[in-house]
Design brief:
Chain lengths: 259, 419
């Protein structure tokens, strides 16, 4: 390029494709307490209706885990912070590893009013010592044991240390090596997504121009079939990597009083 | 529950199925971000604003001018009221208003103006219309604050309701309140007002749906509250990643029109997909937006270029045999999840054609379809409705399937642009 010429080149696209993006979603659950009304009496007596109150800790864990045996991440939403998820995900750093690690946890979000005394999940965030800071999030076994609290403004490395400590203890296989492979897989999915979209675009245009029976359209369809096979292999590999084999742990309802 | 296909629960499941697929479609079309990032904004914008509407100040005359019947608290659905919802989600996190035909809960935060000039202009016209009723609305507000957005959505709700009446040739007087059963109510035959919940956060929507509807959903959902017989539309902006205000508006209209059609004379059986989807898309596409309310199936090839230019895309398919859906195929569609980009865009085009031929006849078709006595089987009646739609098409437009295909193709090739 001569002097004074305008800089050129193709902008690099670092955005993840649709498959990787799907894999990078956290499957949050938002448990709620539901009153169970007693059957209506037939003899005219008053109907018994459950009222909302703070549940005993064992019941609270039973409700938030709902039979899920994975270790649990519990995050409380907060109206005073700069966005609730900030407590878990960094606004400035790469969150891919955090999100991928989160898949091995049951991820629970509780509302801001969880800190009010009669909220059913109040006891989950009960201050354990007078004057202690109420955590923004904590990791815990499904039965309420091995609780590890985090303030919400912790460095990412500290968060990962806690997450890996749970994964090492709760799963049979090594999460660190699985994560490395999963991140490679994301890039492979990106490649397939890009190739597939390119061929699909060409196929669509060819059909619009010459109809579905043109030779080119058939050739593009064959290309798509080949890519579909490659995708299926990646999906299978992803499934294998995700399966770290959960160790047998205590049933959620068994040890409710643990802190 | 499973053993009683006519029960409300069955109908609710049907609603869930439509909407779950809808939500997935929207997510797959939203712009891609590098990865999940936390929101940088405060979560408490709505609770900071407080429950007093700054645009009416609670003044009765101003409220009447704006079409506001009441602010919360008020009864909601199936025996619960807005205080019950507030208790679950947290106090003062949702703004509540009631209009003549709707009850609306709103927790979306401030939104910027859409960037596209056409979308901005359209929104400016809406703000202008609102300002005539509510002079406190700024002529050119810098941003759309939550109360302003809520007023815009209230205006859109009532406007859609009036347009729906106009389509089917009725007024409120045609629906006197006669009882508490579907078909006897004052709201197009529904006893309960139409409900709209527009959340900012997926978590809030997830909690509402779980606690009060007993189902898991956190992006976009239509639900039938079958004790008070009211149709709910719930949307969480956070779940429609990347949608601007116009995108949300289009999605909202699409889903709202489905609820109005389903609610007419009671939600007792599903309408033929080609017909209902066509009408809903015709309404939603009046909003200037690049976002689509469709699902591109994994096995569909759709170039990213011109994806939203449905006239061009439909025309290019209509010119070749084997690339468009014959009407005989369309009437057999039974599973919403099976409908992809081309099914939706061509359903839109079929209705685009019929509506320009004779709008009144389309309205009459809809009315007649919803006047069919329910046999209580819900899905079991779908086949009867599909056949009836074909018969009505013949009676009102003198189209058998082949004639409809031929006339529609001729019109598409003559009317829609080549590029």
């Amino acid at each position: 390029m001569g002097p004074g010429g305008r800089g050129g080149g193709i902008a690099l696209d670092f955005r993840r494709g649709k498959s990787a993006k799907k894999l990078l979603e956290i499957d949050w659950v938002y448990p709620v307490w539901k009153p169970v009304d007693a059957p209506a009496p037939t003899d005219g007596r008053t109907v018994v209706k459950q009222t909302e109150r703070a549940l005993p800790l064992a019941q609270a864990y039973e409700l938030v885990t709902d039979g899920d045996r994975r270790p649990v991440l519990i995050l409380r939403e907060c109206e005073r912070c700069k966005g609730t998820d900030h407590a878990f995900l960094s606004r400035t750093l790469d969150n891919e590893q955090t999100v991928l690690l989160a898949h091995w946890f049951r991820c629970v979000k509780l509302p801001p009013n969880v800190l009010t005394e009669n909220h059913p999940f109040y006891n989950l965030f009960l201050r354990e010592k007078e004057g202690a800071r109420i955590p923004h999030l904590f990791f815990v076994d499904p039965d309420g044991s091995n609780k590890r609290e985090l303030p919400g403004d912790q460095p990412q490395s500290e968060l990962w240390d806690v997450m890996f400590s749970f994964l090492d203890r709760c799963y049979a296989e090594d999460a660190k090596s699985a994560i490395k492979e999963l991140r490679k897989l994301l890039s492979q999915f990106d490649k397939i997504d890009a190739e597939e979209q390119l061929v699909k675009g060409r196929l669509d245009k060819e059909i619009e121009k010459n109809g579905p029976d043109s030779g080119k359209a058939k050739s593009f369809q064959a290309d798509l079939q080949k890519l579909a096979k490659e995708r299926a292999a990646l999906v299978e590999r992803e499934k294998e990597l995700r399966d770290l084999a959960l160790k047998t742990m205590t049933a959620p309802a068994a040890a409710g009083a643990a802190k | 529950m499973n053993g009683d296909p006519g029960s409300g629960a069955t109908r609710c499941r049907r609603t869930q199925r439509w909407s779950a697929a809808l939500a997935a479609a929207l997510l797959c079309l939203s712009p891609l971000t590098a990865q999940e990032k936390p929101s940088a904004k405060d979560d408490d914008e709505v609770s900071k604003l407080g429950p007093v509407d700054p645009y009416t100040g609670g003044d009765a005359a101003a409220m009447a001018a704006a079409g506001i019947v009441a602010y919360g608290p008020f009864p909601w659905a199936d025996g619960h009221g807005t205080p019950d919802i507030d208790r679950v989600l947290g106090e003062r996190r949702v703004l509540w208003v009631e209009t003549a035909h709707f009850r609306i809960g709103f927790s979306m935060k401030s939104a910027p103006w859409p960037e596209a000039a056409a979308a901005k202009k359209q929104l400016q016209e809406e703000v202008k219309a609102l300002r005539k009723k509510l002079p406190k609305v700024a002529e050119k507000p810098k941003k759309l604050d939550p109360w302003l957005r809520l007023h815009l959505y209230a205006q859109r709700c009532e406007q859609a309701y009036a347009q729906f009446h106009a389509l089917i040739g009725t007024t409120d007087a045609d629906f006197p309140a006669k009882g508490t059963r579907p078909g006897e109510g004052a709201y197009l035959g529904m006893p309960g007002k139409f409900l709209v919940l527009l959340f900012q956060k997926q978590s809030d929507m997830g909690r509402y749906m779980d606690r009060f509807c007993n189902m898991k959903a956190d992006s976009s959902m239509r639900f039938y509250h079958d004790k008070t017989h009211s149709m709910l539309l719930a949307v969480a902006a956070e779940g429609l990643d990347g949608f601007d205000e116009s995108g949300l508006h289009g999605h909202f209209l699409y889903a709202l029109w489905h609820n109005l059609m389903n609610g007419l004379n009671g939600f007792r059986f599903p309408l033929p997909h080609w017909f209902a989807e066509g009408i809903a898309h015709c309404q939603a596409r009046k909003v200037e937006s690049d976002f689509l309310n469709i699902q591109i199936r994994d096995d569909e090839a759709v170039a990213e270029e011109k994806q939203n230019n449905w006239p061009v895309k439909v025309r290019r398919r209509a010119q070749h045999d084997g690339t468009w859906f014959p009407f005989e195929t369309m009437v057999q569609w039974t599973d919403w999840k099976e409908l992809g980009y081309h099914a939706h865009s061509q359903s839109w085009s079929r209705l685009d054609y019929l509506l320009q031929l004779d709008r009144e006849k389309v309205g009459a078709m809809l009315r007649k379809l919803k006047n069919v006595p329910a046999d209580g089987t819900f899905d079991g009646q779908a086949a009867q409705l599909r056949t009836l739609a074909q018969r009505l098409l013949f009676e009102t437009f003198e189209f058998d399937a082949a004639t409809f295909d031929q006339k529609w193709r001729e019109w598409v090739l003559k009317t829609y642009p080549k590029k």
